[in-house]
Amino acid sequence: MKKIKTDVCVIGAGSGGLSVASGAVQMGAKVVLIEAGEMGGDCLNYGCVPSKALLSAAKQAHVIREGGAGIAGVTPQVDYAAAMDHVQSAIATIAPHDSQERFEGLGCTVIRAHARFISPRTVQAGDTEITARRFVIATGSRAFIPPIDGLKNTPFLTNETLWAQRSAPKHLLILGGGPIGMEMAQAHRRLGSDVTVVDAGKALGRDDPEAAEVVKATLRNEGVSIIEDAPVIRVSGGAGDIQLHLKDGQTLSGTDLLVAVGRVANTDSLDAEKARIDLTSKGVKVDAALRSSNRRVYAIGDAAGGMQFTHVAGYHAGVLIRALLFGLPAKAASHHIPRATYTDPELAQIGMTESEAREAHGNALTVTRAEISGNDRAIATGRSAGGGFIKVMIVKKRPVGVTIVGPDAGELISFWALVAASGLKMGQIAGMVAPYPTLMEVNKRAAGAYFTPKLFESPRVKTVVKLVQRFLP
Ligand SMILES: Cc1cc2nc3c(=O)[nH]c(=O)nc-3n(C[C@H](O)[C@H](O)[C@H](O)COP(=O)(O)OP(=O)(O)OC[C@H]3O[C@@H](n4cnc5c(N)ncnc54)[C@H](O)[C@@H]3O)c2cc1C
Ligand SMILES: NC(=O)c1ccc[n+]([C@@H]2O[C@H](COP(=O)([O-])OP(=O)(O)OC[C@H]3O[C@@H](n4cnc5c(N)ncnc54)[C@H](O)[C@@H]3O)[C@@H](O)[C@H]2O)c1
């Protein structure tokens, strides 16, 4: 057995692990990075990158089919295999950035093996034992496979296997209407498949219901069947002919099945108990500093059991660098973390939804909004239909949450991420000048709406203006 002593040992070379490793090694720490599967983790290989690449192929097909701005639509020539080639080419283009060669070039020792703890200070990976001052568990998550009768014996796809498909499913059944289910539903519908989404609760159920409805209505208009509050009690059939048996007695048939009902953290095969690391049902139990019950061990990203996004894993990495390298106190916050679902229209959120804010703040809450249909750029580019909007939840002159549904909502929400991180007030936001005509103006419009009643509907303001006007030369 080979033995290595290091400052920092990172387990998992995905979004979080890579960021910690590159930061730590470039600032002078000795780093061992262990990866059991593909460098780059879920986001690059089975998550964000392939899903956004497939959505972009689907959008091309949609634009050609629908036309717009005076240009007639025509039937697109969709080649599913070519769309999947585009997916693989996007992955291949990004892969060098996350590669073993790059990280070895930075000075990391990269070990390609499954890691498990053998003591509170030692991890074994393949034929190497690594003793480290600090460990970082960045092992991510995998698709949760629900214990539904018959599912195990039926062929199904997950976010890991979907990208190897070479022909479009004739009728794709999707179990779960979360971000994965809804993004893949729209992508496949636009690429020519029949699609049925079945959710045990509400599709996009974590989002503001009014905003979620805008997305669901669009998908339904495009021909996606979305069935909600419909628990599946049994799955039957085989390759090319699959049945979902619903609790209410209905049976749905399709040719392929994608399971997307949430995630389970990759913490079950770490032998965490040998290092006295407590786990919860969601992952490693961590405190606000992302530290586990073993003070030498931290957890970040999906393995830490909180918000499951690439930018969260990256943010966690930044928080940890302070603690790992400088021994400084560091805490992970969440009020400034946005999220977006990349359907068309996109759905983005930061902080509290309206109902969460109402519950937390009651009458102290003011909600302002602006409609995408009133945005000149959206109108000029033919993207104003569909009921998109921005809603800002405000308490004591500061936003506590923002919901945006509409074109490029995922881009527009970054502005509010800066607002939240900097603690800006609505007055400062209303004072911003955005170039005309941009979608960005909708953010300013929502801020302006906060002041409209105070300025345009106030008898006091009217009296003061009349008085001043009388005395102005
Ligand atoms: C279909 C899909 C679409 C998504 N789209 C988005 C999106 O658009 N935007 C967004 O922000 N997020 C998105 N996500 C979520 C995002 O992919 C994850 O939140 C992110 O990858 C988490 O990063 P991580 O570093 O925690 O884990 P990962 O990136 O999954 O990396 C963990 C790594 O650890 C390795 N590993 C696990 N166990 C061990 C072990 N014992 N020893 C050694 N190595 C191990 C794994 O092989 C893996 O490479 C999506 C997810 C999916 C599934
Ligand atoms: N755009 C993005 O940023 C993006 C995209 C995809 C995934 N992700 C991340 O990955 C995570 C996982 O995504 P997801 O969509 O798998 O999970 P999810 O937990 O967000 O949604 C799962 C959905 O499945 C439903 N469900 C649960 N059990 C079910 C069952 N037995 N039968 C039918 N429906 C059931 C739930 O009601 C829910 O609507 C997301 O929460 C997000 O953090 C992010």
UniProtKB/TrEMBL annotation:
Gene3D superfamilies according to UniProt: 3.30.390.30, FAD/NAD(P)-binding domain
Cofactor binding remark: Binds 1 FAD per subunit.
Entry keyword set: Disulfide bond, FAD, Flavoprotein, NAD, NADP, Nucleotide-binding, Oxidoreductase, Pyruvate, Redox-active center
Segments forming a coiled coil: none
Protein residues bound to FAD: K52, T139, G140, S141, D302
Cofactor: FAD
Pfam families in the cross-refs: Pyr_redox_2 (PF07992), Pyr_redox_dim (PF02852)
Entry keyword annotation includes Cell cycle: no
Family classification: Belongs to the class-I pyridine nucleotide-disulfide oxidoreductase family.
The protein's name in its UniProt record: Pyruvate/2-oxoglutarate dehydrogenase complex dihydrolipoamide dehydrogenase (E3) component
Organismal lineage: Bacteria, Pseudomonadati, Pseudomonadota, Alphaproteobacteria, Rhodobacterales
